Amino acid sequence: MRLHLDPRRYRSATALSSFRRSVARTAFFNIATTVTAGIAGIVIARSLGPAARGEYAAVTAWFTAAFTVGELGLTAATTFFVARDAHLAPHYVSTARNLLVASGVVVASAGMLATPLLAPENGTVAGGYRIAFLTCLASFLTVGYIASMQASNINRWNLIRISQPALYVATVTLLHLTGQLDLTTVVLAMSLTTVAQTAMAYLLARGQRLTGGRADFGLARPIIRYGTAQLASSVPILVTTRLDQLVLSLTVPSAALGNYAIAATLATLAGPLVAALGHVAFPRLASQALSSSGADRLQRSTVLAAAGVSGALTLVLAASAPWLIPTLFGADYRDAVTLVWLLAPGAAFAVCAQVCGDLLRGQGRPLAAARAQGAAAVAIVVLMAALLPALGVVGAAIASTTANGLALVMALGALRKASAGGSTPPPPPAQPLPQPVVDGLSTPILSPPARRSMYRRRNQR
Fold first, then answer.
1. 20, 108, 148, 176: which sits with the fewest CB atoms below 10 Å from its CB?
2. What HEC string does the chain produce?
3. CA–CA separation, 444 and 454 (whole Å)
4. Which of these ranges, 201-205, 253-257, 425-429, has the smallest mean pLDDT?
5. How far apart are alpha carbons 193 and 140 in whole angstroms?
6. With the C-alpha atoms ordered 244, 248, 250, 255, is the resulting torsion angle positive or negative?
7. Which pLDDT tens digit goes with each residue over 24-61?
8. How far is the C-alpha of 458 from the C-alpha of 452, rounded, in Å?
Protein backbone atom coordinates (compact mmCIF):
# COMPACT_ATOMS: atom_id res chain seq x y z
CA MET A 1 0.00 0.00 0.00
CA ARG A 2 1.52 3.32 -1.07
CA LEU A 3 0.90 6.50 0.85
CA HIS A 4 0.77 9.75 -1.09
CA LEU A 5 1.77 12.80 0.94
CA ASP A 6 0.92 16.32 -0.14
CA PRO A 7 4.35 18.01 -0.45
CA ARG A 8 2.89 21.39 0.46
CA ARG A 9 1.48 20.06 3.72
CA TYR A 10 4.74 18.26 4.44
CA ARG A 11 6.78 21.44 3.91
CA SER A 12 4.35 23.45 6.03
CA ALA A 13 4.51 20.92 8.89
CA THR A 14 8.31 20.80 8.67
CA ALA A 15 8.57 24.59 8.72
CA LEU A 16 6.25 24.82 11.74
CA SER A 17 8.24 22.16 13.61
CA SER A 18 11.49 23.96 12.83
CA PHE A 19 9.96 27.24 13.99
CA ARG A 20 8.92 25.72 17.31
CA ARG A 21 12.38 24.27 17.92
CA SER A 22 14.01 27.62 17.16
CA VAL A 23 11.57 29.43 19.45
CA ALA A 24 12.25 26.93 22.25
CA ARG A 25 16.02 27.34 21.93
CA THR A 26 15.79 31.12 21.70
CA ALA A 27 13.43 31.25 24.67
CA PHE A 28 15.91 29.16 26.67
CA PHE A 29 18.73 31.58 25.88
CA ASN A 30 16.47 34.56 26.60
CA ILE A 31 15.60 33.13 30.00
CA ALA A 32 19.24 32.32 30.71
CA THR A 33 20.19 35.87 29.78
CA THR A 34 17.49 37.24 32.07
CA VAL A 35 18.56 35.02 34.96
CA THR A 36 22.22 36.05 34.67
CA ALA A 37 21.28 39.72 34.37
CA GLY A 38 18.90 39.29 37.32
CA ILE A 39 21.63 37.83 39.49
CA ALA A 40 23.87 40.75 38.61
CA GLY A 41 21.00 43.13 39.42
CA ILE A 42 20.47 41.58 42.85
CA VAL A 43 24.18 41.81 43.69
CA ILE A 44 24.32 45.43 42.52
CA ALA A 45 21.15 46.43 44.38
CA ARG A 46 22.28 44.90 47.67
CA SER A 47 25.80 46.31 47.41
CA LEU A 48 24.99 49.84 46.26
CA GLY A 49 21.70 50.54 48.08
CA PRO A 50 18.71 52.44 46.66
CA ALA A 51 20.50 55.78 46.13
CA ALA A 52 23.54 54.47 44.23
CA ARG A 53 21.29 51.96 42.45
CA GLY A 54 19.26 54.93 41.23
CA GLU A 55 22.42 56.61 39.92
CA TYR A 56 23.33 53.42 38.07
CA ALA A 57 19.80 53.27 36.62
CA ALA A 58 20.22 56.82 35.34
CA VAL A 59 23.52 55.97 33.63
CA THR A 60 22.13 52.84 31.96
CA ALA A 61 18.94 54.64 30.90
CA TRP A 62 20.89 57.35 29.07
CA PHE A 63 23.26 54.74 27.61
CA THR A 64 20.26 52.84 26.23
CA ALA A 65 18.84 56.06 24.78
CA ALA A 66 22.14 56.93 23.08
CA PHE A 67 22.50 53.43 21.66
CA THR A 68 18.92 53.28 20.36
CA VAL A 69 19.20 56.58 18.52
CA GLY A 70 22.76 56.01 17.34
CA GLU A 71 22.25 52.56 15.84
CA LEU A 72 19.92 54.20 13.27
CA GLY A 73 17.65 51.17 12.95
CA LEU A 74 20.46 49.25 11.24
CA THR A 75 20.12 46.21 13.49
CA ALA A 76 16.74 45.29 12.02
CA ALA A 77 17.83 46.44 8.55
CA THR A 78 20.86 44.12 8.55
CA THR A 79 18.79 41.15 9.70
CA PHE A 80 16.15 41.85 7.06
CA PHE A 81 18.50 42.12 4.07
CA VAL A 82 20.77 39.25 5.11
CA ALA A 83 17.68 37.04 5.37
CA ARG A 84 16.29 38.37 2.09
CA ASP A 85 19.53 38.12 0.06
CA ALA A 86 22.03 35.77 1.71
CA HIS A 87 24.44 35.91 -1.27
CA LEU A 88 25.38 39.48 -0.39
CA ALA A 89 25.41 39.02 3.40
CA PRO A 90 29.13 39.94 3.92
CA HIS A 91 28.67 43.12 1.88
CA TYR A 92 25.59 44.13 3.84
CA VAL A 93 27.45 43.49 7.12
CA SER A 94 30.46 45.57 6.06
CA THR A 95 28.26 48.40 4.84
CA ALA A 96 26.27 48.47 8.08
CA ARG A 97 29.47 48.30 10.16
CA ASN A 98 30.97 51.39 8.48
CA LEU A 99 27.76 53.35 8.94
CA LEU A 100 27.59 52.36 12.61
CA VAL A 101 31.21 53.25 13.35
CA ALA A 102 30.62 56.76 11.99
CA SER A 103 27.45 57.04 14.06
CA GLY A 104 29.27 55.75 17.15
CA VAL A 105 31.86 58.51 16.94
CA VAL A 106 29.09 61.12 16.78
CA VAL A 107 27.16 59.57 19.69
CA ALA A 108 30.24 59.26 21.92
CA SER A 109 31.21 62.88 21.22
CA ALA A 110 27.70 64.14 21.90
CA GLY A 111 27.57 62.13 25.12
CA MET A 112 30.80 63.68 26.37
CA LEU A 113 29.40 67.14 25.73
CA ALA A 114 26.12 66.31 27.47
CA THR A 115 27.71 64.76 30.60
CA PRO A 116 28.10 68.05 32.55
CA LEU A 117 24.38 68.67 32.06
CA LEU A 118 23.37 65.20 33.23
CA ALA A 119 25.59 65.17 36.34
CA PRO A 120 26.53 68.79 37.13
CA GLU A 121 27.50 68.23 40.77
CA ASN A 122 28.59 64.60 41.04
CA GLY A 123 31.97 63.66 39.62
CA THR A 124 31.45 59.93 40.19
CA VAL A 125 28.19 59.86 38.24
CA ALA A 126 29.76 62.02 35.51
CA GLY A 127 32.57 59.49 35.18
CA GLY A 128 30.00 56.71 34.82
CA TYR A 129 28.28 58.62 32.01
CA ARG A 130 31.57 59.10 30.15
CA ILE A 131 32.45 55.40 30.36
CA ALA A 132 28.97 54.44 29.16
CA PHE A 133 29.04 56.79 26.17
CA LEU A 134 32.46 55.53 25.10
CA THR A 135 31.09 51.99 25.33
CA CYS A 136 28.68 52.90 22.51
CA LEU A 137 31.59 52.57 20.07
CA ALA A 138 32.14 48.92 20.98
CA SER A 139 28.40 48.27 20.95
CA PHE A 140 28.03 49.67 17.43
CA LEU A 141 30.88 47.50 16.16
CA THR A 142 29.00 44.45 17.43
CA VAL A 143 25.59 45.27 15.96
CA GLY A 144 26.18 44.22 12.35
CA TYR A 145 27.72 40.87 13.23
CA ILE A 146 25.02 39.97 15.74
CA ALA A 147 22.14 41.08 13.50
CA SER A 148 23.44 39.11 10.52
CA MET A 149 23.58 35.91 12.55
CA GLN A 150 19.96 36.30 13.61
CA ALA A 151 19.17 35.73 9.93
CA SER A 152 21.83 33.14 9.09
CA ASN A 153 22.51 31.09 12.24
CA ILE A 154 20.18 31.73 15.16
CA ASN A 155 22.09 29.36 17.45
CA ARG A 156 25.24 31.46 17.15
CA TRP A 157 23.13 34.56 17.54
CA ASN A 158 21.84 33.25 20.87
CA LEU A 159 25.36 32.34 21.97
CA ILE A 160 26.66 35.85 21.32
CA ARG A 161 23.75 37.48 23.10
CA ILE A 162 24.28 35.54 26.31
CA SER A 163 28.05 36.07 26.36
CA GLN A 164 27.98 39.63 27.69
CA PRO A 165 25.50 39.02 30.56
CA ALA A 166 27.40 35.87 31.59
CA LEU A 167 30.73 37.70 31.71
CA TYR A 168 29.07 40.67 33.40
CA VAL A 169 27.53 38.67 36.26
CA ALA A 170 30.86 36.91 36.88
CA THR A 171 32.73 40.23 36.98
CA VAL A 172 30.17 41.95 39.21
CA THR A 173 30.11 39.02 41.64
CA LEU A 174 33.91 39.03 41.86
CA LEU A 175 33.93 42.77 42.54
CA HIS A 176 31.31 42.32 45.24
CA LEU A 177 33.22 39.51 46.97
CA THR A 178 36.42 41.57 46.98
CA GLY A 179 34.62 44.67 48.30
CA GLN A 180 35.35 46.77 45.21
CA LEU A 181 31.85 47.10 43.77
CA ASP A 182 30.76 50.72 43.39
CA LEU A 183 29.20 52.85 40.65
CA THR A 184 32.47 53.31 38.75
CA THR A 185 33.53 49.65 38.80
CA VAL A 186 30.08 48.37 37.82
CA VAL A 187 29.98 50.66 34.77
CA LEU A 188 33.53 49.61 33.89
CA ALA A 189 32.43 45.98 34.10
CA MET A 190 29.62 46.70 31.66
CA SER A 191 32.06 48.38 29.27
CA LEU A 192 34.75 45.68 29.35
CA THR A 193 32.31 42.82 28.92
CA THR A 194 30.78 44.63 25.93
CA VAL A 195 34.24 44.84 24.34
CA ALA A 196 34.70 41.10 24.93
CA GLN A 197 31.33 40.44 23.30
CA THR A 198 32.44 42.46 20.27
CA ALA A 199 35.51 40.25 19.79
CA MET A 200 33.45 37.09 20.15
CA ALA A 201 30.82 38.34 17.69
CA TYR A 202 33.47 39.02 15.08
CA LEU A 203 35.03 35.57 15.45
CA LEU A 204 31.71 33.76 15.18
CA ALA A 205 30.63 35.88 12.22
CA ARG A 206 33.93 35.11 10.54
CA GLY A 207 33.30 31.39 11.02
CA GLN A 208 29.89 31.91 9.42
CA ARG A 209 31.56 33.69 6.45
CA LEU A 210 29.80 36.94 7.17
CA THR A 211 32.98 39.03 7.24
CA GLY A 212 35.33 40.15 4.49
CA GLY A 213 32.69 41.89 2.40
CA ARG A 214 32.99 45.27 0.71
CA ALA A 215 31.05 48.30 1.88
CA ASP A 216 29.01 49.53 -1.06
CA PHE A 217 27.01 52.70 -1.55
CA GLY A 218 24.46 50.81 -3.61
CA LEU A 219 23.72 48.60 -0.62
CA ALA A 220 23.87 51.50 1.83
CA ARG A 221 20.84 53.17 0.32
CA PRO A 222 18.33 50.34 0.95
CA ILE A 223 19.86 49.69 4.39
CA ILE A 224 19.48 53.34 5.34
CA ARG A 225 15.93 53.50 3.97
CA TYR A 226 14.85 50.46 5.96
CA GLY A 227 16.84 51.62 9.00
CA THR A 228 15.23 55.05 8.92
CA ALA A 229 11.79 53.47 8.89
CA GLN A 230 12.85 51.20 11.76
CA LEU A 231 14.26 54.19 13.67
CA ALA A 232 10.84 55.79 13.40
CA SER A 233 9.66 52.80 15.45
CA SER A 234 12.60 52.27 17.82
CA VAL A 235 12.72 55.89 19.01
CA PRO A 236 9.05 55.85 20.07
CA ILE A 237 9.70 52.48 21.74
CA LEU A 238 12.56 54.14 23.59
CA VAL A 239 10.19 56.92 24.65
CA THR A 240 7.52 54.53 25.91
CA THR A 241 9.96 52.24 27.74
CA ARG A 242 12.62 54.65 28.97
CA LEU A 243 11.14 58.16 29.16
CA ASP A 244 9.90 57.47 32.68
CA GLN A 245 13.38 56.67 33.99
CA LEU A 246 15.04 59.42 31.95
CA VAL A 247 12.71 62.04 33.41
CA LEU A 248 12.85 60.56 36.92
CA SER A 249 16.67 60.66 36.80
CA LEU A 250 16.39 64.46 36.65
CA THR A 251 13.35 65.07 38.89
CA VAL A 252 13.21 62.65 41.85
CA PRO A 253 15.71 61.53 44.53
CA SER A 254 18.06 58.72 43.53
CA ALA A 255 16.51 56.36 46.10
CA ALA A 256 13.05 56.75 44.52
CA LEU A 257 14.53 56.05 41.09
CA GLY A 258 16.30 53.01 42.56
CA ASN A 259 12.98 51.52 43.70
CA TYR A 260 11.37 52.34 40.35
CA ALA A 261 14.24 50.73 38.43
CA ILE A 262 13.93 47.51 40.44
CA ALA A 263 10.17 47.41 39.81
CA ALA A 264 10.64 48.07 36.08
CA THR A 265 13.22 45.30 35.83
CA LEU A 266 11.00 42.75 37.56
CA ALA A 267 7.98 43.78 35.48
CA THR A 268 9.81 42.77 32.30
CA LEU A 269 10.58 39.20 33.43
CA ALA A 270 8.05 37.81 30.96
CA GLY A 271 9.66 39.71 28.12
CA PRO A 272 12.55 37.40 27.21
CA LEU A 273 10.33 34.32 26.90
CA VAL A 274 7.69 36.09 24.81
CA ALA A 275 10.19 38.04 22.69
CA ALA A 276 11.69 34.77 21.42
CA LEU A 277 8.59 34.36 19.26
CA GLY A 278 9.28 37.59 17.40
CA HIS A 279 13.03 36.97 17.24
CA VAL A 280 12.50 33.76 15.28
CA ALA A 281 9.49 34.87 13.21
CA PHE A 282 11.11 38.09 11.92
CA PRO A 283 13.85 36.55 9.70
CA ARG A 284 11.54 33.72 8.60
CA LEU A 285 8.98 36.14 7.25
CA ALA A 286 11.70 38.32 5.72
CA SER A 287 13.15 35.36 3.83
CA GLN A 288 9.83 34.89 1.96
CA ALA A 289 10.30 31.11 2.22
CA LEU A 290 6.74 30.56 3.52
CA SER A 291 3.59 30.42 1.45
CA SER A 292 0.89 33.04 2.04
CA SER A 293 -1.21 30.64 4.13
CA GLY A 294 1.88 29.47 6.02
CA ALA A 295 2.84 33.05 6.86
CA ASP A 296 -0.70 33.76 8.09
CA ARG A 297 -0.66 30.68 10.34
CA LEU A 298 2.74 31.64 11.69
CA GLN A 299 1.52 35.13 12.55
CA ARG A 300 -1.69 33.98 14.25
CA SER A 301 0.05 31.35 16.38
CA THR A 302 2.79 33.81 17.32
CA VAL A 303 0.37 36.50 18.51
CA LEU A 304 -1.80 34.06 20.46
CA ALA A 305 1.21 32.46 22.14
CA ALA A 306 2.63 35.87 23.07
CA ALA A 307 -0.65 36.97 24.66
CA GLY A 308 -1.12 33.73 26.62
CA VAL A 309 2.42 33.47 27.99
CA SER A 310 2.77 37.15 28.90
CA GLY A 311 -0.63 37.23 30.64
CA ALA A 312 0.08 34.14 32.73
CA LEU A 313 3.55 35.29 33.80
CA THR A 314 2.26 38.76 34.68
CA LEU A 315 -0.30 37.27 37.09
CA VAL A 316 2.36 35.12 38.74
CA LEU A 317 4.69 38.11 39.14
CA ALA A 318 1.98 40.33 40.64
CA ALA A 319 1.03 37.66 43.17
CA SER A 320 4.61 36.99 44.26
CA ALA A 321 5.88 40.59 44.39
CA PRO A 322 5.13 41.27 48.12
CA TRP A 323 7.54 38.58 49.31
CA LEU A 324 9.82 38.34 46.25
CA ILE A 325 11.16 41.89 46.36
CA PRO A 326 12.12 42.06 50.07
CA THR A 327 13.62 38.57 49.88
CA LEU A 328 15.81 39.24 46.85
CA PHE A 329 16.69 42.91 47.21
CA GLY A 330 16.14 43.73 50.89
CA ALA A 331 13.64 45.71 52.94
CA ASP A 332 14.92 49.03 51.54
CA TYR A 333 13.15 48.20 48.26
CA ARG A 334 9.69 47.48 49.71
CA ASP A 335 8.24 50.54 47.95
CA ALA A 336 8.86 48.75 44.65
CA VAL A 337 5.98 46.30 45.29
CA THR A 338 3.23 48.78 44.39
CA LEU A 339 5.20 49.90 41.36
CA VAL A 340 5.45 46.30 40.13
CA TRP A 341 1.66 45.97 40.28
CA LEU A 342 1.33 49.11 38.15
CA LEU A 343 4.14 48.35 35.69
CA ALA A 344 3.68 44.60 35.09
CA PRO A 345 0.57 44.89 32.84
CA GLY A 346 2.31 47.56 30.79
CA ALA A 347 5.38 45.36 30.37
CA ALA A 348 3.14 42.56 29.07
CA PHE A 349 1.52 44.98 26.62
CA ALA A 350 4.95 46.21 25.52
CA VAL A 351 6.43 42.78 24.73
CA CYS A 352 3.30 41.72 22.82
CA ALA A 353 3.52 44.95 20.82
CA GLN A 354 7.19 44.17 20.18
CA VAL A 355 6.26 40.75 18.79
CA CYS A 356 3.65 42.34 16.51
CA GLY A 357 6.29 44.83 15.40
CA ASP A 358 8.68 41.99 14.54
CA LEU A 359 5.98 40.40 12.41
CA LEU A 360 5.38 43.68 10.59
CA ARG A 361 9.10 44.22 10.04
CA GLY A 362 9.40 40.71 8.67
CA GLN A 363 6.78 41.66 6.08
CA GLY A 364 8.85 44.70 5.10
CA ARG A 365 6.50 47.12 6.90
CA PRO A 366 8.62 48.86 9.54
CA LEU A 367 6.62 52.08 9.22
CA ALA A 368 3.44 50.26 10.23
CA ALA A 369 5.12 49.31 13.51
CA ALA A 370 6.47 52.85 13.81
CA ARG A 371 3.02 54.42 13.64
CA ALA A 372 1.77 52.31 16.55
CA GLN A 373 4.78 53.16 18.69
CA GLY A 374 4.62 56.82 17.68
CA ALA A 375 1.07 57.17 19.01
CA ALA A 376 2.16 55.50 22.27
CA ALA A 377 5.12 57.88 22.57
CA VAL A 378 2.83 60.89 22.27
CA ALA A 379 0.52 59.39 24.88
CA ILE A 380 3.25 58.82 27.46
CA VAL A 381 4.61 62.35 27.04
CA VAL A 382 1.15 63.82 27.67
CA LEU A 383 0.41 61.49 30.58
CA MET A 384 3.80 62.04 32.20
CA ALA A 385 3.30 65.79 32.06
CA ALA A 386 -0.15 65.42 33.64
CA LEU A 387 0.55 62.79 36.30
CA LEU A 388 4.17 63.15 37.35
CA PRO A 389 3.89 66.46 39.27
CA ALA A 390 1.03 65.16 41.43
CA LEU A 391 1.79 61.44 41.76
CA GLY A 392 5.56 61.17 41.30
CA VAL A 393 6.82 57.68 40.47
CA VAL A 394 3.29 56.26 40.71
CA GLY A 395 2.18 58.66 37.98
CA ALA A 396 5.12 57.61 35.83
CA ALA A 397 4.11 53.95 36.21
CA ILE A 398 0.48 54.65 35.24
CA ALA A 399 1.61 56.65 32.21
CA SER A 400 3.95 53.87 31.07
CA THR A 401 1.33 51.11 31.31
CA THR A 402 -1.34 53.16 29.54
CA ALA A 403 0.97 54.08 26.66
CA ASN A 404 2.13 50.47 26.18
CA GLY A 405 -1.49 49.33 26.07
CA LEU A 406 -2.18 51.83 23.30
CA ALA A 407 0.89 50.59 21.39
CA LEU A 408 -0.39 47.01 21.51
CA VAL A 409 -3.88 47.94 20.30
CA MET A 410 -2.49 49.87 17.34
CA ALA A 411 0.10 47.21 16.47
CA LEU A 412 -2.59 44.53 16.40
CA GLY A 413 -4.68 46.73 14.14
CA ALA A 414 -1.75 47.28 11.77
CA LEU A 415 -1.01 43.55 11.69
CA ARG A 416 -4.64 42.69 10.97
CA LYS A 417 -4.74 45.25 8.15
CA ALA A 418 -1.48 43.94 6.66
CA SER A 419 -2.73 40.34 6.77
CA ALA A 420 -6.07 41.27 5.22
CA GLY A 421 -4.26 42.90 2.30
CA GLY A 422 -2.88 39.52 1.24
CA SER A 423 0.25 39.02 -0.84
CA THR A 424 0.97 38.85 -4.53
CA PRO A 425 2.88 35.92 -6.09
CA PRO A 426 6.56 36.59 -6.85
CA PRO A 427 7.65 37.10 -10.47
CA PRO A 428 9.34 34.24 -12.38
CA PRO A 429 12.79 33.50 -10.90
CA ALA A 430 14.59 34.05 -14.20
CA GLN A 431 13.47 37.68 -14.32
CA PRO A 432 14.87 40.50 -12.17
CA LEU A 433 12.67 41.26 -9.20
CA PRO A 434 10.76 44.55 -9.40
CA GLN A 435 11.73 47.24 -6.97
CA PRO A 436 9.83 46.30 -3.81
CA VAL A 437 8.14 48.98 -1.79
CA VAL A 438 8.79 48.97 1.93
CA ASP A 439 5.96 51.03 3.39
CA GLY A 440 6.08 53.41 0.46
CA LEU A 441 9.89 53.48 0.30
CA SER A 442 11.15 52.25 -3.05
CA THR A 443 14.10 49.93 -2.42
CA PRO A 444 16.17 48.86 -5.45
CA ILE A 445 16.76 45.15 -4.86
CA LEU A 446 17.94 42.89 -7.68
CA SER A 447 17.70 39.14 -7.87
CA PRO A 448 20.70 37.21 -6.49
CA PRO A 449 22.04 36.31 -9.98
CA ALA A 450 21.82 39.93 -11.07
CA ARG A 451 23.62 41.07 -7.90
CA ARG A 452 26.42 38.52 -8.37
CA SER A 453 26.85 39.67 -11.99
CA MET A 454 27.00 43.28 -10.83
CA TYR A 455 29.76 42.53 -8.33
CA ARG A 456 31.76 40.48 -10.86
CA ARG A 457 31.73 43.43 -13.26
CA ARG A 458 32.87 45.77 -10.50
CA ASN A 459 35.67 43.50 -9.39
CA GLN A 460 36.91 43.16 -12.98
CA ARG A 461 37.11 46.91 -13.29
1. 20
2. CCCCCCHHHHHHHHHHHHHHHHHHHHHHHHHHHHHHHHHHHHHHHHHHHHHHHHHHHHHHHHHHHHHHHHCCCHHHHHHHHHHHCHHHHHHHHHHHHHHHHHHHHHHHHHHHHHHHHHCCCCHHHHHHHHHHHHHHHHHHHHHHHHHHHHHHCHHHHHHHHHHHHHHHHHHHHHHHHCCCCCHHHHHHHHHHHHHHHHHHHHHHHHHCCCCCCCCCHHHHHHHHHHHHHHHHHHHHHHHHHHHHHHHHHHHCCHHHHHHHHHHHHHHCCCHHHHHHHHHHHHHHHHCCCCCHHHHHHHHHHHHHHHHHHHHHHHHHHHHHHHHHHHHHHCHHHCCHHHHHHHHHHHHHHHHHHHHHHHHHHHCCCHHHHHHHHHHHHHHHHHHHHHHHHHHCHHHHHHHHHHHHHHHHHHHHHHHHHHHHCCCCCCCCCCCCCCCCEECCEECCCCCHHHHHHHHHHHHHC
3. 13
4. 425-429
5. 14
6. negative
7. 777 777 778 878 887 888 888 888 888 888 888 888 88
8. 10
Total residue length of the chain: 461
Cα separation, 454 vs 433, in Å, equals 15
Radius of gyration over every alpha carbon of the chain, rounded to an integer in angstroms:
22
- The torsion angles phi and psi of 119, rounded to 5 degrees, stand at -135, 75
